[in-house]
Amino acid sequence: MARLGIVGFPNTGKTSLFNALTGLGAPTAPHPFSTTEPNVGVAKVPDPMLEEAARVEGSKKIVHATLDLLDLPAMAKPGHGGGLAGAYLGRLREMEALIVVLRAFEDPSCPADESGTDPVAQAEELTLELAAADHEVFARRAPRIAKEATADPAKKAAAEAIADAAEWLSGGVPLRDRDWSEAERDAFRDLAPITLAPVVWVVNVAEDEPRPEELVEAVKAVVSSGDSVVALSVKIEEEGSRLEPEERAELFEALGLGEGALATVVRAAYGALGLLTFYTLGPKEAHAWTVRRGATAPEAAGKIHSDMERGFIRAEIAPIGEVVAAGGWDAAKRANLVRVEGRDYVMAEGDVMVVRFSV
Question: What is the model's pTM?
């Protein structure tokens, strides 16, 4: 389960996005800093193929993949109190990726004094704020580890990496804008840098915004090249999250919102984190699992149960689309659609897997 932290300036709609993604009802208000404590929730990853596979298998239970979401209190703009409190920065450092909400709408009932409505300016300011937070940590650590390295030469490479990163961050540039070696990343691990985490930027637009694509491209031009940027009308998405699935789909179709915020953000987050989905199917349960791209079959088996990774022998694999088209796993085997793979097999998006193991 991936962990994502939601951040942004006041009145940008980040708690509304949290509600839209989780289906919860965390309080929102048309005044700054209405979120005073973190909101924690789980977003169920939409997966029509999983539900269809469960239908053909006759599965009694469906288990969707999920994302853990943490909605933090708003960051004050520079000169307005400055950034996040230390305790909340600590929580943010625990996250695997960030969702940053940018305001791009006008609403007289929801003042924009603390955020503005220029998403590009907000993206630039937030980038500097988060880089400054990392710089403080690295600059504080650099002299200490340099001193330690004089007594322990084994720490010399780590000391150089941390000093280099501190210098890099002093320019207000995120760590993810540079290719760091595995050894350097290992040196950073205990410092849990925020700016090394992947970011999904959500441009919160008005329902009638005529050119959301232009806003997305403008933000892309000022953020890290590997970041994802999407545009959403968060207010409508939050309202839609309170509806039954069929009504929600009708609303999104009528408004031209496509598949909705959850699917959009999940796809962006999976891309940013380098994740893919694989499945296990059976009459008792149809289950979606998440694993990093490039993971081998034993690693994926370990997501199901550690014994499966430790005692892995082989895996039976078939794409979920072919399994559904065939009418289920047993039918797919009879049609010779299932293949046997060994320890070196690299998992693909949509694989259905049966693990053979012995412990």
Answer: 0.86
User: And the tokens for 9?
Assistant: 């300036």
No. of H helices and E strands in the chain?
Answer: 14, 12
Q: How many domains does the chain have?
A: 2
| DSSP calls for 274-321 | TEEEEEE--SSEEEEEEEETT-BHHHHHHHH-HHHHHTEEEEEEEEHH
Residues 158-171 have pLDDT tens digits of 999 999 999 999 99
DSSP state, 77?
P
Compute how many other C-beta atoms are within 10 angstroms of the C-beta atom of residue 341.
Answer: 16
In the block, residue with structure tokens 């990774």: 309
Separation between Cα atoms, residue 181 and residue 119, nearest integer Å: 32
Residue 49 has, within 13 A of its CA and on its CB side, a CA count of: 17
Q: What integer pLDDT is reported at residue 261 of this predicted model?
A: 76
Q: Would the pLDDT of 132 be above 50?
A: yes
Same domain, 217 and 259: yes
CATH number for the domain harbouring residue 335: 3.10.20.30
pLDDT at 33: 47
Between 197 and 237, whose confidence is greater? 197
What's the pLDDT tens digit per position in 16-51? 999 888 887 665 545 444 555 789 999 888 899 999
Residue 10's domain comprises: 2-117+195-272
Q: Do 303 and 265 have their domain in common?
A: no
Quick one: which of 288, 279, 299, 304 has its CA closest to 344? Answer: 299
Helix axes 261-273, 14-22, angle to 10 degrees: 100
Say if 133 falls within a structural domain.
Answer: no
Between 355 and 259, name the one with better pLDDT. 355
Mean pLDDT of 116-135: 95
The total of other beta-carbon atoms located within 10 Å of residue 128's CB is 16
Clarify whether residues 102 and 9 are in a common domain. yes
